[in-house]
Amino acid sequence: MFLSVKKGAILCLMTALVLVLAACSSSNGNSKAPNTSSQEAVTDSTTNASTDEQKLDADATGAAQTTYPIVVSNYTTENGTWVAKEQTFDKAPDRVVANTQGAAELLIRLGLTDKIVGVAALFGNVPEDIAEEFKKIPVLSEGYVGKEVTIGASPDLVMGRGGLFEDTDWGVGTVNSLNEMNIKTFVQSTSVTDAKLDNLYKDITELGEIFNVQANAASYIEQLKAREKALAARASAETINYASFFDNGDGTIGVYNGNGDTFIESAMSLINMHNMLINEEGTLSLEKLIEINPDAMIISKYAGGIDPEQTIEKLLTNKQLQSINAIKNKKIYVIDFNNFWGYGDSIFTGVEALADDLNL
């Protein structure tokens, strides 16, 4: 929403917010803890998911079929760096744990709801057209889920955001440790280093092959590419340089660099938006914000987090920041955390919403 017109990770404290944001960054190569006009153009193909899935299944006999075993080149980490690691599937997985809401939503879109035995990290709104399907999935944790609970769901596949594959209380276990227990893994390539929007299509294609729903995958990619084309047609004539901020939970405002969020940057570039801080590292000060002078500023909203309206009020009344163009012109926007850091198809919903707010 556009907060100048209308005002409006798991605790509301500074530590929790930094945790959520860090999950975003860690999923792009670090191993630390976690941080609609276009849509209307493809309404007929996106708002009736169940009907579409039935049609796709009916058409699947004419599509390519998976011959098992199938080997997929996926990922693991070595010394904090993403490297390739093959996963061999002797058959389609039957019990999948999705470590984020976004991963589960993507599986639902491919007609695989009945394969999901658990989901975690419910930080955003579930799209209305798949809300009933989503309710069928057991929730392992409203926040991030640990390895013990993950294994307790008896999965044969764990998939989702790369940064959550860690042996910690907020992680599902490392790729190697899960593989040693004969549990396959699928790290979304959208969440690893240097990911771009095309990685989303790669993930969907590979999931289609793994689960032998290649017709569903191909059809859904066509729908998403139509949305991509519609967004590109709405791009701003001039680059909109933006920066992200958050609430430290102690009355102060923090600046989020988005370092490594190349998947998000790729999607935002469709409407000619650019994160000015994406190549910055470490903690950033408000002075840095003044120095770069962004045209727009963005804050994410997530379940259990501090109300963005409160943080925006602090921003607008901070005398130190009044020279910033985004504040002078009240170009301050709220985005849904899951849309952007779910690393799935809902990235389009998020960018479409921003395009609407920007009147593109």
The poorly predicted ranges are 1-51, 53-61
Largest pleated sheet: 5 strands, parallel
| Helix share, percent | 25-40%
Oligomeric status of the shown chains? single chain
Helix and strand content put the structural class at: alpha/beta
The main sheet orders its strands as 5-4-3-6-7
Signal peptide: 1-22
Region (Disordered): 28-58
Family: Belongs to the bacterial solute-binding protein 8 family.
Pfam family, one: Peripla_BP_2
Describe the model.
The chain is α/β, with parallel strands linked by helices and 360 residues long. Helix content is 37%, strand content 18%. The protein is built from 16 helices and twelve strands. It has helices at residues 14-26, 37-40, 43-46, 49-59, 101-109, 131-134, 147-152, 175-180, 198-210, 214-232, 262-268, 286-292, 308-317, 325-328, 337-341, 347-357; strands at residues 70-78, 81-89, 96-98, 116-120, 139-141, 157-160, 184-187, 240-247, 253-256, 273-275, 296-301, 332-336. The strands form three sheets. Strands 5-4-3-6-7 form a five-stranded parallel beta sheet. Strand 6, helix 8 and strand 7 (184-187) form a beta-alpha-beta unit. Helix 9 (198-210) packs antiparallel against helix 10 (214-232) and helix 10 runs parallel beside helix 16 (347-357). The radius of gyration is 20 Å and the shape is globular. Mean pLDDT is 86; it is low at 1-51 and 53-61.
